[in-house]
Amino acid sequence: MNYLRALFSEVHIKDIVERKKIEREDVLDILASSVGSLTNPTKLTNTLKLRQRISVSPNTIKCTSGI
Asked: What global pTM score does this model have?
């Protein structure tokens, strides 16, 4: 199981980070965990404030994500 986790982290996550030029993997984790659930820019903004202490406006998320 540890091998599979390491393989996923090394190959899959690093590929996404490199391809999409993501600067913060911790934010990627938050966004990936919300896949499959209903969300919106305000909900993502609140989650970032609570979990990462990142202040970003809902408009910024809306403009960059295409929501």
From this structure: 0.57
Domain count, the chain: 1
Distance CA 49, CA 40 (A): 14
- The boundaries of the domain holding residue 61 are 24-67
pLDDT in tens, 43-54: 889 988 998 888
Which positions ≥6 away from 13 have C-beta within 8 Å? 25, 28
The pair of structure tokens assigned to 60 is 């910024």
The Cα 55–Cα 12 span in angstroms is: 28
**Which backbone phi and psi does 37 adopt, to 5 degrees?**
-120, 155
